[in-house]
Amino acid sequence: MRQVTAKYRDVEVAESDHYELMFGCVSGDSSGAMGLHYVNLTLYGDGKIDAYQPEIVIYEPTPGGRPRLIGADYIVDAKAWHANHNEAPELNGQKFHYYSAPNRYGLDAFYTLHVWAWKDNPTGTFVNWHANVSCDAHDGPSK
Question: N or C end of the chain, less CB within 10 A?
Answer without folding.
Answer: C
